Amino acid sequence: MGSLEAEPAGATGARMRGRRCLVTGGASGIGLATATRLGAEGGSVAVLDRVDQPAGLPETSFYVRCDVRDETEVERAVSEASAMLGGPPDVLVNSAGIYRVRALVEMTANDWHEVLETNLTGTFLMSRAVARALIDARTPGAVVNLASTAALAGDPLEPSGHYAASKGGVLAMTRQMAAEWAGHAIRVNAVCPGVIDTPMLRLTDDPAGAARYLEWAVPLGRLGAAHEVAATIVFLASPDASYVTGAVVPVDGGATAI
Ligand SMILES: NC(=O)c1ccc[n+]([C@@H]2O[C@H](COP(=O)([O-])OP(=O)(O)OC[C@H]3O[C@@H](n4cnc5c(N)ncnc54)[C@H](O)[C@@H]3O)[C@@H](O)[C@H]2O)c1
What we know:
Blueprint lengths: L19 E5 L4 H12 L3 E6 L12 E4 L5 H15 L5 E4 L14 H28 L4 E6 L14 H21 L4 E8 L13 H11 L8 H12 L10 E4 L7
The structure holds nicotinamide-adenine-dinucleotide.
């Protein structure tokens, strides 16, 4: 019988050699693991985040500070990243995101806008800026958007309707981008992580509750690791996924299968 435990970060090839990669939210969690894996597979990597002093970035990566909610900053950051990478990013990973817990009846309009602006508007602004640059340069590309299993099912225990709506929007926008940009050879896919052990996760604040949840809701019976999501993202960004666009891939230990 095989083990259900996470394997260490996988063996790396050179699938991303010659690729110019831009990872938003790359200072932490899934974005950081993805930037690391893209670099290990031969890509040139620019990391974008809103923090002043990111720690632990891959040594060869470039850092661009940007708040993805701000249209002007996004335009500037994509130009800056293009200059650093030697051309427009042909891989964009939209991992910047925030998570908040609040019941819908208690939610203020500000709560709602904060989450939608980061997770949905930020993904739109970044993708539009990169797609425009790729289309102008007649260069093919791949975008991978971070959605969530929260986009696929409601959750009465940890209510976050604004977050779920933002990620549902990301899925709809992923399909629309895939349809509109296929003619420019730009593929667009989404991953839906389940409970992944990163600074964003709230479940681990309550270890006993987390253990119960993992037992009844996650067939693999454990949290996911950031590098396991990164491996799927890098597959979707790589030439191995050359016929995959508009797809939604859960990375959730089987949570949405039951
Ligand atoms: N961890 C999970 O269990 C989980 C589950 C489902 C989906 N996700 C999604 O995966 C993505 C990455 O999550 P994570 O767990 O790595 O979170 P994380 O908190 O570890 O990292 C998110 C990063 O995004 C950055 N960020 C936030 N707002 C920003 C902004 N306005 N501009 C620029 N950068 C900004 C943060 O500074 C941080 O570095 C998110 O979109 C999240 O919604 C995570």
